[in-house]
Amino acid sequence: MNSAAPGAKPMAEVVVAPTPTPSPVPAPPSFANWTTYGGNSEETRFSPLTAINAQNAAGLGLAWSHEFDTARGMEATPLVQDGVLYTTTSWSKVYAFDATSGNVLWSYDPKVPGETGFKACCDVVNRGGVLFEGKFYFGTLDGRLIALDAKTGSPVWSTVTVDQSKPYTITGAPRIAKGRVLIGNGGGEYGVRGYISAYDANSGKLAWRFYTVPPAKGAPADGAASDAVIPKMQATWAGDYGKLGGGGPVWDTIVYDQEFNQVIFGVGNGTPWDRRTRSADKGDNLFLDSIVAVDADTGAYKWHYGGSPGEVWDFDQTQSVILSDLNIGGQNRKILMQAPKNGFFYVIDRANGRLISANNYATQTWTTGIDMATGRPNETPNARYAKGPFVSLPSGQGAHNWQPMAFSPQTGLAYIPAQEVPMLYKSDHPFIKRDGGWNLGIELGANTLPNKTAQLKAVRAMLKGHLAAWNPITQKEAWRVQYDGPWNGGVLATAGNLVFQGTSRGTVNAYTADKGQKLWSFDAEIGIMAPPVTYAVNGRQYVAVMAGYGGGYGIGAALADNAGPRPNGRLLVFALGGDAAYHVDHVAPAPAVVVKSTWSAKTLARGGHIYEETCSVCHGGTARSSGVVPDLRRDPLLASKAGWNQVVIGGALSDNGMVSFKKWLTPADAEAVRGYVAARARNLAVNGN
Ligand code: CA
User: Fold this and answer.
1) Which pTM does this prediction carry?
2) Is residue 352 one of the residues assigned to a domain?
3) Please, are residues 276 and 316 in contact by the beta-carbon 8 Å criterion?
4) What is the DSSP code (8-state) at residue 50?
5) What are the tens digits of pLDDT across the range 182-226?
6) Would you tell me how many other CB atoms lie within 10 Å of the CB of residue 170?
7) By residue range, what is the domain housing residue 673?
8) Which of 75, 356, 385, 514 could form a disulfide with 425 if both were Cys (CB 3.0 to 4.6 A apart)?
9) Which stretch of DSSP H or E encloses residue 641?
């Protein structure tokens, strides 16, 4: 079903090209900007700046930092233009700083209602904006696209891009193509129908929209750019599809490929994850888990490549798409490269979407490889967990998630924030739609962590992360830096033979780009997921990164026991000789709240099931919090049946994102959950975890 069929070259035929000649090193410019998400139109996250380089990187220090007003996850790519640094934070707030001093020039709060946090699968994050002709454009968690005057921060226009009665969110950064602002949305875990929209940058008027999955069975066409391919999409779906929207959100990657006048975007998973429920277990379900190219002027379909046809694993194919020209087999090929969640590194022809080569860049158990004649994966026998549970590597957390990768044309290497996070997939078919939470079609509770300290330690030791330097021509790893945990930061590469990356443990590191030798490290004391950027003002080069842990994995997975509440996020800016003071106040975790059990074993089991399916995605599996949202085992409310009920059913904390669950849970359900959390709290008091 992929458009890559005939002519795709088997990997064995890919001939290794000579090492590319390094481009001449330019003189350091007085100003160097970073105005769009990926740093340039190819989204390489490679900077030609060389003032900071492998010879002097050890002399880096903090030039300035800024503490924000939230401890929720920070994922933004800061932007810089002519000495002004722009960034966004959780809850879609925008800040503009003097890029040399850190003075706040203006800030803008779109006042996202707190209860919107409930619709966000993966924390209330924002990955940044785009600068274009004097305006700063960004999306809000509640689905608005806003244009601000870049000088003053005053709103110029604002438009609602989604049906706000549905669980759509925006966390991704917009891009610019032909005077239009491109934006997608998220919600594939809840039940939405994904699409990408193009709005006129001056007026905010909708120019075109492309839906990534067909309308529900029997529903009319949309009057959108995707209408022409509805039959092509429909032919790959079966049963009564579309009841939950189908999924396919365009929640992250969008690239404008000027050479082919096309917009290339990544499409996410289906709703629910399990195809048995979504599409009568049949078909490729276009365009789930695909890269799609459309005409930049009209939004008309051009081609697609799908890495996980008819998927059942949450293998969004939304990760960084980087454009390049590579010499492959003696030919200059205009390619894109991508390392999506499913563990494979793809090199794809931008002219037609055909697969040129693929290899797995991380351990994977769901295939025996890619059939290069068809471009399709050869799945292992029980990968679809039809005959019982299946432990998959990668999992829905991805061998690589949204943390952007970089590509250096100097070294010819791509730098992937890779990870190994296994997951046990257990179908809960026949599935019952749940309005109050995720709709996956699998039992999340099958992944609860053990109580015994030694077993817990063993499970945590399986969770790994590394920085992989990957050669897209040979499809082989050149070097790697191993970390002691997953969910590390996005990557920046520079012409100074440097690669920068933050880690979930809170360090910011510089390595040589050619060999991966560690040259410099800074202890930020706050977990880092966001990608660094670099810029120059008045001839001085800076490196900036947002620090703040959370996001899809970070919000729900405790890295260690006895993590206290997370500190507020920071913006960190480094320069050679920087010596700014830095201090983070850490709050010690509160003790476990021990409540005598008055719940029957049956009630506790029911409470555990409800907790793991509904509450765990934010408050942590087995009630072990990562500290991003409150650790319920340590919350005084646990001791109060009435107080607990006021929050869970009464919605007393809805401004913080903890909405009332009364539409989906009864007071007796809430009380059963309290019993389960109380049991977890007693385990914490006795076993320390
Ligand atoms: Ca997903």
Assistant:
1) 0.92
2) no
3) no
4) -
5) 999 999 888 899 999 999 999 999 999 999 999 998 899 999 999
6) 28
7) 601-687
8) 385
9) helix 641-648
